[in-house]
Amino acid sequence: MTPANDLAERHLVTIEAGGERLDKALSDALPQLSRSRIKALITGGWVAQLAPDEGQATISEPSMRVKPGQAFAIVIPEVVPARPQAQAMDLDVRYEDEHLIVIDKPPGLVVHPAAGNRDRTLVNALIAHCGDSLSGIGGERRPGIVHRLDKDTSGVMIAAKTDEAHNALAEQFAARRIERAYWALVWGVPGMRQGRIEGNIGRAKRNRKKMAVVRSGGKPAATRYKLVERYGNTASLLECRLETGRTHQIRVHLAHLGHPVIGDPLYGRVTKARLSALPEGAVEAIEKLGRQALHAYLIGFEHPCFKKRVKIESNVPNDINLLLTILKGL
Q1: Helix (H, G, I), strand (E, B) or coil at 268
Q2: Does 112 score more than 70 pLDDT?
Q3: What residues are annotated to the active site?
Q4: pLDDT at site 74
Q5: Is residue 311 situated within a structural domain?
Q6: End-to-end distance of the chain based on CA atoms, in angstroms?
Q7: How many angstroms separate the Cα of 28 from the Cα of each of 20, 74, 286?
Q8: What's the CATH number where 143 sits?
Q9: How do residues 11-59 score in pLDDT, each as one tens digit?
């Protein structure tokens, strides 16, 4: 077994019913740890089988089938600092406790470090904001990102502080029990006041940076929409609710419907006819917006530890609200 220091956490698990995979049996016995975390501990050399006469033998196969009466020692190493660095930034915190945090993300903020955005991300800001309240996700002191918003989409999103909260929230997302609603300001007015857009989403063939509704392959996706307000025949405000969570899903589905999000640089086709139908000041407001007019205004979930329903809402941000005010003149 991998050597551990005095700050490591240790557990002893005795198997009662055999036949299961080792990672499944241990995650059932230690519900505070996700199965993926258990698997990482096994492959990392932190799990050993105990035998009365032979001492202990390190196990490295998560798929090993267990037998009744087998005993295993599990070491959870001390949480190490996160690889992303803490960078203090102003955050609009809508809810926070020792298990999770809900923030209202501004447009322009990237959620997670990646190529082209190595720092000054939401993850960097959360590490700085949460400090020692982060108990470790996957063995690192970092926030657990269970869903994301595009860089230029604003609105509410959740991050977990503990493995237990991260695992429970991920299960809610997978089971589609998370309530998510968005305001989308789109070109034109849908023919139906409400509807459901369904279509698999995959990479666009002609532009790999874009997603598209594809005839074959891709991943199943469904979005429900409702007309909230119309501005002549030029634009409308829709409420969109996600049934699934695919990359660029709302933007792709609305473009596929023929009503792309205003200001969307990837999917918002701007024609001269659309621009000429706008009232005075609207074109300038769209240029000043500089992003898709899409805002995640609501998120609802069951608290993973308190088992109570939590619902957080966010007001329409000023840049979108300015454009809405101008369009009301139509």
Answers
A1: coil
A2: yes
A3: 150
A4: 94
A5: no
A6: 71
A7: 10, 13, 52
A8: 3.30.2350.10
A9: 999 998 889 999 999 988 998 888 888 998 999 899 999 987 767 889 9
